[in-house]
Specification:
Length: 163
């Protein structure tokens, strides 16, 4: 005859194994779900000048997606495998290390940006054919840069502060 304590011990062991099996059956990559950041601005080029538009930055499994904050329509999608460089700067206007990108962007963006007051957190992400200039919130910029590096595998170059 089986002792009551032995039955209780076996049922606890069975319950523990059932919980473990249920845990292991879950996807092992929950971090691949999109991370979204609401307090982001993106420089958008208009017909005559650039302006900052409020956007949602969504770091997806395979790409960075920028959505219009009001309509949630997609403005840009930059696949991580196509990203050539990413640069962070803390300055009055976005800064670029790459002269080619700077020449294109400065010609389009420089005039309105010279009127900005105070320093801001900027993240510039560049592919071979496109780029995004993002204004990051002072409370989220570290989290965004870290999440971007983790998901994309691209090291964000920190440009020196302007003097």
């Amino acid at each position: 005859m089986i002792e009551r304590g032995a039955i209780l011990k076996k049922s606890r062991k069975f319950a523990a194994m059932a919980v473990l099996a249920a845990f292991l059956a879950q996807p092992l990559t929950p971090w691949l779900r999109a991370e979204q950041f609401q307090k982001v601005g993106m420089m958008v080029v208009g017909s005559e000048k650039a302006r900052e538009e409020n956007v949602v930055l969504s770091l997806e499994e395979t790409q960075l997606i920028i959505l219009n904050k009001e309509t949630l329509s997609q403005l840009k999608a930059l696949p991580y495998k196509e990203i050539k460089a990413a640069e962070y700067s803390y300055s009055k206007a976005p800064r670029w290390k790459t002269a080619g990108v700077a020449a294109v962007a400065i010609g389009v963006l420089a005039v309105p940006l010279f009127f900005l007051k105070g320093k801001k957190h900027w993240l510039t992400v560049r592919t071979a054919t496109d780029y995004a200039v993002l204004h990051l919130d002072k409370n989220d910029y570290r989290l965004i840069v870290t999440a971007f590096e983790t998901r994309s595998g691209v090291k964000v170059e920190i440009l020196p502060d302007e003097k």
